[in-house]
Write a sequence for this structure.
């Protein structure tokens, strides 16, 4: 493989990593509070609120049921409005984030729902405010689950970013299509796939490690 | 002083038959007075409304009607910040401990102090102090998953007591523990009650728990208080069948099974023996009643059942005896004069064998 191609792959990897990292950050930043609100407003939650919960839940479901390719095309006007263009890696971050936000929201909500209701009640009995319960009970107790869900989000985003790449976003997906497919260079195709697999694997390992460090609900994991 | 005045709690539940909603009365007009510094037990079967009742004290559950006063503060009138402040002076412990899984023992005990905004060093001192009171000071860096049930409940107790509440509410705190551990946790609650003078309200479905540590008690059945009073009184003079049934597990049945078929007559007749049940507690339990009777009266005494138990630390005995001979009625008079609690089971024809 020539030096040029290697450089190309390196650049593609960097672009992919950038897209994934940026969209993950944005998705966490918006999805985390969204998940918390979904959880606390649900029936039985500490701030139960039917209308708010119903509206958010519907929005999340719509966001999650739209196939990524369609979502990406559908929000092009929005993307243009935000970054000024609809092509390139910065433009790709917009649909990637939009696709991941509802996913993160649900993942966080699910992690919080698994917390024993009794623990929340104990905090209430000690006079904790709803905000204190969120900060000192829900988030720390749900943390291992949230980390697991965020890992899944990052991994999904690696896949989505490759898909976005085929639609002009750049990154490894773009390389795979232009060189591997259109110019029929199977080695390049293979190389992009291998790099993507390695990226996913690294995310998984890092996520699992982080989750296990924060998890204390088992006897054998004492640290 | 905790005063409950006419507490009712109505849940709207789905009717199994019609599929519509209907009212379900979990509590009906419950009124109780709980003295400062006492250990008050509320007993009832599963579903009687015990948890609902105790949760009405700190407003985890809001009564549908009625008033709750804790130290002259009307809890039922509070909400928001006022309610949260009041709750800080009411500790609560739970059957399933409800400790924060991802916090150490230290972090769990410190939790209520963090809520109150304690400074770091005061907090550390207080956590250490209270941890040593409940004898969990060696485990401060461990996580709840690494503790036994009894240790978890000790942490729960420490957490509940950390910011010096006046009241401790216990919702079946020992129900998930084995008998040995139950005893040690009950002893701890009792020590705390004596040392700190705080009022304890505990609910349980086990008479043994009441017997072990409570001063006063109430029996809850289908959301209503059916019997109430000092534990000694309720134990020695249970009125309701629900109470008697629950007591039968802790107090031995007054008559051996082999007596079940016998015909007891209320009136004396020729050749009949008089069967009596004596209950006694406190200092009377240590008096030599039987030898007294034998010396003073011309009677033969056959002991059928003898059983001594303790309510808290008061000895509490049950004795079933059979008197034969000339002076059995005189002996009965004598026992009544001594303020012994005597129940005449009846006259029975043949002299029965002692049940094995
Ligand atoms: N939130 C609720 N909605 C409907 N019914 C309830 C609710 N909470 C408790 N109940 C009912 O009220 C009754 C008393 O419950 P509870 O106080 O938990 O009983 P206990 O603690 O004595 O076992 C039960 O029949 C229970 O099913
Ligand atoms: Mg209960």
């Amino acid at each position: 493989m020539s030096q040029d191609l290697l450089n190309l792959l390196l650049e593609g990897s960097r672009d992919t990593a950038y897209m994934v990292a940026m969209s993950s950050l944005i998705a966490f930043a918006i999805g985390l509070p969204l998940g918390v609100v979904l959880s606390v407003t649900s029936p039985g939650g500490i701030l139960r609120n039917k209308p708010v919960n119903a509206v958010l839940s519907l929005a999340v479901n719509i966001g999650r049921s739209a196939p990524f390719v369609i979502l990406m095309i559908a929000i092009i006007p929005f993307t243009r409005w935000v970054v000024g263009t609809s092509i390139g890696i910065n433009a790709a971050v917009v649909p990637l984030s939009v696709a991941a936000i509802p996913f993160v929201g649900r993942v966080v909500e699910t992690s919080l729902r698994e917390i024993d209701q009794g623990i929340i009640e104990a905090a209430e009995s000690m006079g904790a405010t709803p905000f204190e319960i969120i900060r000192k009970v829900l988030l720390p107790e749900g943390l291992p689950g949230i980390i697991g869900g965020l890992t899944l989000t990052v991994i999904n985003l690696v896949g989505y970013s490759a898909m976005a790449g085929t639609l002009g976003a750049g990154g490894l997906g773009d390389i795979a299509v232009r060189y591997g497919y259109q110019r029929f260079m199977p080695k390049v195709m293979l190389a992009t796939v291998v790099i993507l697999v390695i990226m996913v694997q690294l995310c998984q390992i890092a996520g699992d490690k982080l989750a296990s460090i924060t998890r204390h609900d088992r006897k054998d994991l004492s640290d | 002083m905790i005063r409950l005045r006419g507490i009712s709690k109505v849940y709207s539940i789905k009717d199994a038959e019609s599929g519509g909603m209907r009212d379900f009365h979990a509590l009906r007009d419950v009124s109780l007075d709980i003295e400062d510094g006492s250990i008050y037990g509320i007993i009832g079967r599963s579903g009687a409304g015990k948890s609902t009742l105790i949760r009405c004290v700190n407003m985890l559950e809001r009564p549908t009607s009625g008033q709750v006063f804790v130290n002259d503060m009307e809890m039922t009138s509070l909400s928001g910040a006022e309610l949260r402040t009041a709750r800080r002076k009411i500790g609560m412990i739970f059957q399933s401990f409800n400790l924060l899984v991802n916090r150490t023992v230290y972090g769990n005990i410190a939790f209520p102090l963090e809520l109150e905004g304690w400074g770091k060093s005061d907090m550390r001192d207080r956590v250490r102090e209270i941890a040593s009171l409940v004898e969990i000071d060696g485990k401060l860096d461990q996580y709840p998953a690494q503790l036994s049930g009894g240790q978890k409940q000790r942490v729960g107790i420490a957490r509940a007591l950390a910011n010096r509440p006046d009241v401790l509410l216990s919702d079946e705190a020992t129900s998930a523990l084995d008998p040995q551990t139950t005893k040690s946790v009950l002893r701890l609650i009792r020590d705390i009650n004596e040392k700190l003078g705080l009022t304890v309200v505990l609910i349980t479905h086990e008479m043994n728990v009441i017997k072990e540590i409570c001063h006063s008690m109430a029996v809850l059945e289908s959301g209503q208080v059916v019997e109430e009073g000092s534990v000694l009184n309720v134990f020695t003079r249970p009125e309701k069948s629900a109470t008697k049934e629950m007591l039968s597990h802790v107090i031995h049945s007054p008559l051996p099974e082999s007596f079940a078929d016998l015909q007891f007559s209320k009136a004396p007749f020729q050749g009949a023996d008089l069967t009596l049940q004596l209950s006694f507690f406190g200092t009377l339990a240590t008096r030599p009643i039987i030898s007294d009777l034998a010396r003073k009266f011309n009677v033969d005494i056959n002991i059928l059942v003898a059983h001594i138990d303790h309510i808290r630390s008061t000895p509490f005995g049950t004795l079933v005896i059979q008197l034969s001979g000339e002076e059995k009625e005189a002996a009965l008079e004598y026992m009544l004069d001594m303020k012994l609690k005597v129940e005449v089971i009846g006259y029975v024809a043949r002299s029965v064998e002692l049940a094995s």
Q: What stands out?
A: Chain B touches chain A through 29 residues (CB under 8 Å).
